[in-house]
Amino acid sequence: MHAQNQPSDTLQDVKDIKRLMERSSRFISLSGLSGVSAGICALAGAGIARYGIFKNYYSLYNGRGSFADGDFSELKVQLLTLAAGVFAAAFLSAFYFTWRKAGSQGVPLWNYTSRRLFWNMVIPLAAGALFILGMLQYNEWKFVAPACLIFYGLALVNASKFTLTDIRYLGYCEIALGVINMQWLGHGLYFWAIGFGILHIIYGIVMWWKYERRPLGQ
Amino acid sequence: MKNPINGLNKVFESRIRLGVMSVLMVNEEINFNDLKQMLEVTDGNLATHLVNLEENGYIKVHKGFIGRKTNTTYAITKAGEKAFSEHIAALENMIKGVK
pLDDT confidence of B5, banded at 50, 70, 90? Predict the structure, then answer.
């Protein structure tokens, strides 16, 4: 393509090599706004659980002076439904912002790198989900929040090899939070809200600031 | 003074061959379609350059199947890694020389 090696060609070659090495090994379209939106969904979910479902559950107790047989199973159904709803909302909103960013970069969303990222994320997450559902099967609720945090953190650390490396630090924080939560077992919802809500929002803002923000005046 | 062209590999003068090597340096194994998508080239064009790289012993080809569909994957060889590293070193030297 270039008969003689002009200096500009050489520089262009090196730039091409660097760009292709990056683009072919990591999925870099992950948007910071995805983190923020997922965090907002998580906080909203935690709020509904705290001030809607749990408040209602305890008011039943306060009204009657005791729990009825059906109360706990009703609470479980409500919480699981809420969890599924929050997950769907967080996933869809995160997907939307990343889809938009991939579009503006001219990169297909489902390509070699995103496929690799997806599978490396799904394996620890699916293992965690099955583990937690297994615990629920035995009516073991205490460890749900720490298990969510730890498995999610491990999934992020694993995923960091296939996308922006910064996500590794979010993973470390989630794991640490899960481990600390083990010492404060009654407060799972708060730890959950910090890990999935606040940390996501902070991470998302930092990523957006670092990679997506357009400098003023442009 | 050393000739700055020294060490540059003729095979990598083509943008596409340079691209294929860059991708294979950081990915253990990659199939034809993914490679095509990353480099934004046509089937025929890519195939010709892949044959060239294979004949030079820089990449190895593995023909496999997913169900009934052929799935051809490519990987870099030791010789390819060496040749490409030397090419990059030569490019770097040229840039340093220009400064």
Answer: low
User: A145-190: per-residue pLDDT in tens?
Assistant: 999 999 999 999 999 999 989 999 999 999 999 999 999 998 999 9
Q: How much is the pTM?
A: 0.82
Is A2 in CB contact (< 8 Å) with chain B? yes
DSSP letters of A145-202? Answer: HHHHHHHHHHHHHHHTTSB-TTHHHHHHHHHHHHHHHTTSGGGHHHHHIIIIIIHHHH
How many domains is chain A built from?
A: 1
CA atoms within 13 A on the CB side of A116: 18
Check if the interface score ipTM surpasses 0.90. no
Q: Is A77 on the interface with B (CB under 8 A)?
A: no
Cβ separation B91–A111 shorter than 8 A: no
Judge whether A3 lies within some domain: no
Look at residue A5 and tell me if it is in a domain: no
- Domain membership flag for residue A217: no
Range of the domain at A107: 33-212
CA–CA min distance A143, chain B (Å): 39
Whole-number Å distance between alpha carbons of B36 and B46: 7
What pLDDT was estimated at residue A2?
Answer: 44
Per the domain annotation, does A85 fall within a domain?
yes
Chain B residues in contact with A108 by the CB 8 A cut-off are 37
Q: Which two tokens stand for residue B58?
A: 């820089």
